[in-house]
Amino acid sequence: MNSKKKKLPPDSSVPRRLDRDRRVRQNARIARVLGVLNLIQSRGRWNLKAIASELECSTRTIQRDLEVLEFAGVPWYVDPADKCYRVRADYQFPTLMLTQDETIGQVVATALSKASGLDISSGASPTTRKLAATGNGEIQQLIADAARMIEVFDLKLVDHSQHQVVVKTLQNALLQGNKVSGRYDSPYEDETVRLTIHPYRLCLVKQAWYVIGHIEGETEAKTFRVARFKSLRMLEEPALVPDQFDLGEYFGNAWSVYRGEKSYQVKLRFEPQAARIVAETIWHHTQEVKQHQDGSVTLNFTVDGLDEILHWVLAWSGKVKVEAPETLRTMLLQELNAAISLNSTNHKH
């Protein structure tokens, strides 16, 4: 945590920034040219105006991109009947030679990235469309068949559909090594707070996306939930990121994202009716399972802090006994008593 990236002197940082910007522009142009090829190879009717609208650029830019494709040997032409661009039917743009497993893996990635909560960007769909447009008939059919059969449903993740701009800002900041600044709605503050953050990592933990980094003027890394940012922008200032930062070491044995100061050995015994269900899932990387002759099962965990695992144990109420530690059993009983009181017919607000 104490090791910091050295700042470049001003005279050497300018060429590096310009070179980086040039590569970004080049990559954007290549992506757009390939996007044009993808469209005119598809079954749609794409004229100059439609392509420009789809790719959000001018018709003159599309004309230049078509010239690039022609120079690269792509045999496109204007279909006089449909008045749109086409590529000669026998032409195949050189693509990766994917195996059946690799192709299905790409379709699975597409399904995952479209699931509610994971749809934080365009995901894998554009790549899959390009593979389908440029692959041979067998690959095209495999992609179509797999897409019909594979779906991801009801993951119960935090809704990030309104935070795609925030996620993209964080992605760009992390790739370019820059700070970010914005308004954050912390559950521990009465009002939103303005923060400048040196981001280290963007990660999905349990049901939500988080960014790990330290606040300007501090050194301790903290965890920020992406969905709580009300606004965010990237600054043209380099972020200070520890060279040896390790995400696994940072989270340690936290049950989820918030690591407590004290480590506990947790021992939970589940009744037979819940044993099989609970044991078939890996809930934590320290999990150890012991089966018993009566059909019950004991799960052992090493966790840093008890608050997060407490809420998980509550979901199994009536089917689990806390055998250790005593502190967790006491916390569980307090929560259960509070629930009974709150739902009692005699409860008064």
UniProtKB/TrEMBL annotation:
Q: Name one Pfam family in it.
A: WYL
The superkingdom of the source organism is: Bacteria
- InterPro entries annotated for this entry? CBASS_pafABC_assoc_protein, HTH_11, PafC-like, WCX_dom, WH-like_DNA-bd_sf, WH_DNA-bd_sf, WYL_dom
Annotated region described as Disordered, given as residue ranges: 1-21
Start and end residues of each Helix-turn-helix type domain: 39-75
Ranges of residues in domain WCX: 263-339
UniProt domain WYL: residue ranges: 166-234
User: Any idea what this protein is called?
Assistant: Transcriptional regulator
